[in-house]
């Protein structure tokens, strides 16, 4: 693919605005237009929703989202050096891009738009999991977003989609799969980025389940933290310190106290959360 719009090529934008990548901001820029377009397309029809993008950087993915027909893109960027380049994009696309300067951890995307929101981002690796956890643990469900299409290090992607029996199965997988359908869409070679990261990346997509199993969220977070915190131990040992009568609670959840965290599926953890939520 030669070009997606009439704006200057990303390498020129980076040189013109002096956007040498900063490790502290998790900056690995995606300059391959085939890949940015593929990510934008994989999020489906964008013409009826607001896209929230975290960390647009020099704007490669941002441009692909706008070229793919996004009605509106709201992009949150911490690095002020990127703002002039993003402003050029906003002007080119007739104001369909709004840029918010700041830390995405301090913004709730729900407050940024009224209609349906899709979150699409090549996330900075240092805050990616924290951002995802925030979007997964909203009090209301279904949440304010209709899908998340996010790039992570592949190892994190595998944890998000992880199920019982997978090596990467853990807390993140329980939480994500309790409330969402999760998929890894495709991997990206380090060479696709400037500078190349040390690891393979993956695009992960999450869609909210309409009716996840009813579950006390805080209790689920506590139970999974204890169970996977000592994942080699049997539940009767790993959950012992959580509340009195741990063994009886595990049995009340219909599980064997001798089972280990990695053998318990999402429904099992939901049952444990209920059992450990009781006084
Ligand atoms: N979207 C661009 C791309 O695909 O080439 C850049 C992705 S780069 C992996 C991550 C971006 O997130 C950088 O532009 C970085 O400055 C920005 N960033 C890092 N921490 C952030 C934060 N807490 N809030 C908002 N943006 C952040």
From TrEMBL:
Keywords, sorted A to Z: Cytoplasm, Methyltransferase, RNA-binding, rRNA processing, S-adenosyl-L-methionine, Transferase
> From what superkingdom does this record's organism come?
Bacteria
Fetch the PROSITE patterns from UniProt.
Answer: RRNA_A_DIMETH (PS01131), SAM_RNA_A_N6_MT (PS51689)
* Annotated InterPro entries: KsgA/Erm (IPR001737), rRNA_Ade_diMease-like_C (IPR023165), rRNA_Ade_Mease_Trfase_CS (IPR020596), rRNA_Ade_methylase_Trfase_N (IPR020598), rRNA_adenine_dimethylase (IPR011530), SAM-dependent_MTases_sf (IPR029063)
CDD domains membership: AdoMet_MTases
Q: Where in the cell is it found?
A: Cytoplasm
Q: What is its EC number?
A: 2.1.1.182
Catalytic reaction list = adenosine(1518)/adenosine(1519) in 16S rRNA + 4 S-adenosyl-L-methionine = N(6)-dimethyladenosine(1518)/N(6)-dimethyladenosine(1519) in 16S rRNA + 4 S-adenosyl-L-homocysteine + 4 H(+)
Q: Which organism is it from?
A: Pseudovibrio axinellae
Q: Which GO terms describe its cellular component?
A: cytosol
Which family does this protein fall into?
Answer: Belongs to the class I-like SAM-binding methyltransferase superfamily. rRNA adenine N(6)-methyltransferase family. RsmA subfamily.
Q: What protein does this entry describe?
A: Ribosomal RNA small subunit methyltransferase A
Main localization category: cytoplasm
Its biological purpose? Specifically dimethylates two adjacent adenosines (A1518 and A1519) in the loop of a conserved hairpin near the 3'-end of 16S rRNA in the 30S particle. May play a critical role in biogenesis of 30S subunits.
**A single Gene Ontology molecular function, please?**
RNA binding
């Amino acid at each position: 693919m030669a070009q997606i719009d009439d704006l200057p090529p990303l390498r020129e934008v980076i040189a013109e605005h002096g956007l040498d990548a900063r490790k502290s901001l998790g900056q690995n820029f995606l300059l391959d237009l085939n890949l940015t377009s593929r990510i934008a397309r994989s999020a489906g029809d964008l013409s009826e929703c607001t896209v929230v993008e975290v960390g647009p950087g020099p704007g490669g993915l941002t441009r692909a989202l706008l070229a793919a027909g996004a009605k509106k893109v709201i992009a949150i960027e911490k690095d002020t050096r990127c703002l002039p380049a993003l402003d050029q994009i906003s002007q080119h696309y007739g104001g369909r891009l709004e840029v918010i300067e700041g830390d995405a951890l301090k913004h709730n995307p729900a407050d940024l738009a009224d209609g349906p929101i899709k979150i699409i981002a090549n996330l900075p690796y240092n805050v990616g999991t924290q951002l995802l956890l925030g979007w997964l643990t909203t009090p209301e469900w279904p949440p304010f977003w209709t899908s998340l299409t996010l790039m992570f290090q592949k190892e994190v992607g595998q944890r998000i989609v992880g199920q019982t029996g997978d090596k990467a199965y853990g807390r993140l997988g329980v939480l994500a799969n309790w409330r969402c359908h999760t998929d890894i869409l495709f991997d990206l070679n380090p060479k696709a980025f400037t500078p190349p990261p040390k690891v393979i990346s993956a695009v992960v997509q999450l869609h909210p389940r309409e009716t996840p199993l009813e579950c006390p969220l805080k209790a689920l977070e506590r139970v999974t933290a204890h169970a996977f915190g000592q994942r080699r131990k049997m539940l009767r040992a790993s959950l012992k310190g959580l509340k009195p009568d741990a063994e009886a609670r595990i049995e009340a959840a219909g599980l064997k106290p001798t089972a280990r965290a990695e053998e318990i599926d999402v429904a099992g953890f939901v049952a444990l959360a209920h059992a450990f939520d009781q006084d």
